[in-house]
Amino acid sequence: MAKSKSAYSVPGKIGKTERHIIVVWVDNEAGVLARIAGLFSGRGYNIESLAVAEVDKKKHISRITIVTEGTPQVIEQINLQLKKLVPVHKVADFKRGEKDILFRELALFKMLANAKKQEKIKKICKKFNPVVLDKTNKSFVIQVTALRAEIDKLAIDLKRLGLISTSRTGAVAMTKGPKIFN
Amino acid sequence: MPKLFTGAEIVFKALEDQKVDYIFGYPGGAVLPIYDELKNHKSIKHILARHEQGAGHAAEGYARSSGKPGILLVTSGPGATNAVTALTDAYMDSVPLVCISGQVPTHLIGTDAFQECDTTGITRPCTKHNWLVKDVNDLARVLHLAFEVATTGRPGPVLVDIPKDIQFKKGKYSFSKSTLKKKLNGRATHKISNNELDKFIDLLKKSSKPIFYTGGGVINSGPQASEYLRELVSLTGFPITSTLQGLGAYPGDDPQFLGMLGMHGTFEANNAMHDCDLMINIGARFDDRITGKVDEFSPGSKKIHVDIDPSSIGKNIKVDLAIVSDVSEFLKSLIKRFKEKNKNFLNSNKQKTSRWWSTIEKWREKKSLNFINSNKIIKPQHAVQRLYELTKDKDTFVTTEVGQHQMWAAQHYKFNKPNRWMTSGGLGTMGYGLPAAIGVQIANPGKLVVDIAGEASVLMTMQEMSTAVQYKLPIKIFILNNEYMGMVRQWQELLHEKNYSESYTAALPDFVKLAESYGCVGMRAKTPDELDEKIKEMVNIDRPVIFDCLVDKAENCFPMIPSGKPHNQMILGPEEEEEISDEGKILV
Q1: What is the pLDDT of residues A38-94, one digit of tens each?
Q2: A108 and A83 fall within a common domain
Q3: What per-residue confidence (pLDDT) applies to A9?
Q4: Does B579 touch chain A (CB under 8 A)?
Q5: Domain coverage including residue A149
Q6: What pLDDT, on a 0 to 100 scale, did the predictor assign at position A180?
Q7: Which of A139, A163, B383, B543 would bridge with A158, disulfide CB 3.0–4.6 Å?
Q8: Residue B588 has pLDDT above 70, yes or no
Q9: Catalytic residue flag (residue B52)
Q10: What gap in Å lies between CA B73 and CA B76, rounded to an integer?
Q11: Which one of the listed residues B279, B460, B462, B487 is annotated catalytic?
């Protein structure tokens, strides 16, 4: 489209996007996930992955980890808008690639493979804490934990070795060392 | 054993403890227990609207003119969905509303029961927060929390959905203030530091082309904020412009006031915003009707933004100094600090800003709000001007619908006090003004309340005239009748080769007879020479009036920043209308 000269409703320059991991502590109450997801969809933000579980049974606090992509301005808005939600206690924001943050994603792979192939597969998965969860003479379920990109690559490699089903969690995150998010 | 109350009793106990005096609503199956309880609470009066949207806008008018939250009571299903427009309107314009909705009994939720809808799901994006109460023992806490959320930080609507069985069930009631520990929108614990104040004052001192740009946040912060704003503007001697929602915070007839800015703002206000070297935004949100193309918005200025909502800062425009605060608290501290250190600021600064003021005076000479008057046909701008001249000595409250008449009202009616101007700015809801006027009149008995309306908008909620008559509310519906959806017609003229597609209403009612059928007074003005007398007559009638003012059908609202032009190039009048580029036509 030709460059518009209009004073109204023309998109401004779009900055470079960054991938961020946003961790949100929320009251584990009905509809809280819909509030978070609705905020993202309603404002046109992007959710790449999402991991949720209650982490404090007594206080009913859930920890939500969201992987998202956006310009610095959008990421700032996501943080500020999340903080405005009533059930949200705190929000932590990490740029992908920050040094003192740990990220992990878990994946289950179901493979059609005989014993010989199974050994080969275990070898490929060796670096990613493989655990065999189920085994028959025809099939095989293996669990790995790794970074997102590593699992992406692994899934491609396993494809030709008989991968028939993949199940993945979203990423979860934690800081290194003794300090915690506050 | 504490005394137990039914859910319906708890609702009213909470409303009483929150000092609620009026509820706007409409009964229905799922709220009958609450309506049944109404008779036992004489301090709370219920205003029966004719449609839940009307009840919602009336609650908004009540809230905006009184500074207190508006209360809305509706039934499940269609009652709740009808309220959605009003809730969204309140959300966009930061109006505190507490909506209580009935819901089908808990055991029927999720079964597609009669008049069931997912009310909390539907209203989630148009409320600050909402609750579905499934345990009667939660009800008191939730209701008080609802009031707190609605009225603290940046105000807004909330909704409490109460299933019918919960309204019957017995439970405990308690009222403890400040149930919400978390700071909402940053207000609760934010202390303004001297460092922030000094940075602010330093920017003021360095500027030779400053401008104050103020918005609805000043009004929402309470009448004190307007007092502080006037003091600060007079201490600095700087020019000031206001958004649509901010009108009235600073006197509209003061020489330092440049008029409204934005798409239909004055030539001087928009040019000053474009050319300034310091922009001081107090309680406004850099809305797209103000900024135009953000990349070319006020390119040479340092920008300060004071807002209670941290997410408003940096959302559209990057600023140099961001201050998260309530306007009133901030201005109070700022003025104190400013006075301590800068006794002679005004004198020393006069010289610095004198060139700026003479530039502004040159822009002012354009008289951008002028129009070509006629002695045969009533020009809509002339009608608003006459209405202003003939009502300015009273403490008049004005509401509007949405469209050309709304912009003419904003341009030509000069407000001197906050909370006197109620208009749907963010959502742009046609049909807002009439029910809002009802709420305003309830909150301000004995005051003159005028809805400056368009004939198309007002028909959207016309049924509420019946409400006005029932409660003897002498609101004045001043219709600038041009038989067109005027703003649509104007855009079609300028942007769509005069293809007036569906913007003409061919079968309008006779508004005088319509008024009479509602049991109120109908009047009509056809020519300029009868206008004044008729307006005077309208003002003196102590009953609701529909005033059908027949105006020029082809008049356009200027100045206007058209699509396809940069921000500092406005169309000033009909003689300057130009072709608009093809790219400009796709824009709204």
Answers
A1: 999 999 999 999 999 999 999 999 999 999 999 999 999 999 999 999 999 999 999
A2: no
A3: 58
A4: no
A5: 102-174
A6: 83
A7: A163
A8: no
A9: yes
A10: 10
A11: B487
